[in-house]
């Protein structure tokens, strides 16, 4: 590991996360669009040897650099979640995209220190795009500051969700009601959509049934670009959140979308 002693703790963690993402990018591309062994996990979601190999290497590097830190990942059991620092990682966010050859999957890396989310990374290996959000600093795309569109109304917003299949019946009804009020809706993207929101191309994302490793890294990226990301009731996302996520390009747009989701829920 390089000498980072001259950096603040947050900057040191961010530098390490960059090194980690460099490794995962290379590994992911060695597997991408190659024959893969696909298995189904207990929740019927797919997993490949790429997911497992990349997470194993991420865990190895984290443990080597920070042996006292905890790790919460998708493919292996959590470790030391009572530690002062917890890394939340997803080796391939968008496995279905990955195994079907779509270049919209990414690696997610987040670090929480003393209960505060310090940084988040969305790295997209096929495109070479990497969004980094760090507490107290603007989000950057490949080192250049970026910001959301700032759109404030549903009528002008571009709405995305990864797949309608991720919603339960009630959630899908609420999403459909919201969809009727926006300028455009599109599907797909996984974590890529949140990077596009941070860069001003997408205005609103609504999803459910996500896990902490799916959303924790997104929070610093979206917030550092001027956006808002919470659960569907407007509460901050935590390791204990139920996985209903909404991200918006502005506080006003977020509030309008939340009002629609709440109104539709109360009407049922």
TrEMBL record:
Say yes or no: keyword Secreted present: no
According to UniProt, this protein's pathway is: Amino-acid biosynthesis; L-histidine biosynthesis; L-histidine from 5-phospho-alpha-D-ribose 1-diphosphate: step 8/9
Give any GO molecular function from the UniProt entry: histidinol-phosphatase activity
Record's keyword annotation contains Iron: no
Q: Which SUPFAM superfamilies match?
A: Carbohydrate phosphatase
Q: Domain of life of the organism in this record?
A: Bacteria
Reactions that this protein is recorded to catalyse = L-histidinol phosphate + H2O = L-histidinol + phosphate
* Keywords for this protein: Amino-acid biosynthesis, Histidine biosynthesis, Hydrolase, Magnesium, Metal-binding
Return the InterPro entries for the record.
His_9_proposed (IPR011809), Inositol_monoP_metal-BS (IPR020583), Inositol_monoP_superfamily (IPR051090), Inositol_monophosphatase-like (IPR000760)
Q: What is its EC number?
A: 3.1.3.15
The cofactors named for this UniProt entry are: Mg(2+)
Q: Which Pfam families match?
A: Inositol_P
Give the family per the record: Belongs to the inositol monophosphatase superfamily.
Name of the protein:
Histidinol-phosphatase
Q: Which organism is it from?
A: Arenibacterium halophilum
């Amino acid at each position: 590991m390089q000498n980072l002693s001259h950096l603040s703790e947050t900057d040191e963690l961010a530098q390490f996360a960059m090194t980690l993402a460099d490794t995962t990018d290379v590994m992911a591309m060695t597997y991408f669009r190659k024959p893969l062994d696909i298995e189904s996990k207990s929740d019927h979601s797919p997993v490949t040897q790429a997911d497992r190999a990349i997470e194993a290497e991420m865990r190895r590097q984290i443990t080597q650099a920070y042996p006292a830190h905890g790790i919460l990942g998708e493919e292996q059991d959590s470790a030391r979640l009572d530690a002062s620092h917890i890394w939340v990682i997803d080796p391939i966010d968008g496995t279905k995209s990955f195994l079907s050859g779509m270049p919209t999957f990414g690696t997610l890396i987040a670090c929480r220190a003393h209960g505060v989310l310090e940084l988040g990374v969305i790295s997209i290996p096929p495109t070479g795009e990497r969004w980094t959000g760090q507490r107290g600093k603007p989000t950057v795309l490949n080192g250049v500051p970026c910001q959301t569109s700032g759109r404030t109304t549903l009528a002008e917003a571009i709405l995305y969700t990864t797949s309608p299949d991720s919603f339960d019946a009630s959630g899908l009804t609420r999403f459909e009601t919201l969809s009727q009020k926006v300028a455009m809706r599109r599907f797909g993207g996984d974590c890529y959509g949140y990077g596009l929101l941070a860069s001003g191309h997408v205005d609103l994302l609504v999803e459910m049934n996500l896990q902490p490793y799916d959303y924790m890294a997104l929070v610093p990226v979206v917030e550092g670009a001027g956006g808002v990301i919470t659960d569907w009731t407007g509460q901050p996302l935590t390791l204990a959140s139920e996985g209903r996520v909404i991200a918006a390009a502005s506080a006003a747009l977020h509030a309008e979308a939340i009002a629609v989701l709440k109104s539709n829920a109360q009407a049922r």
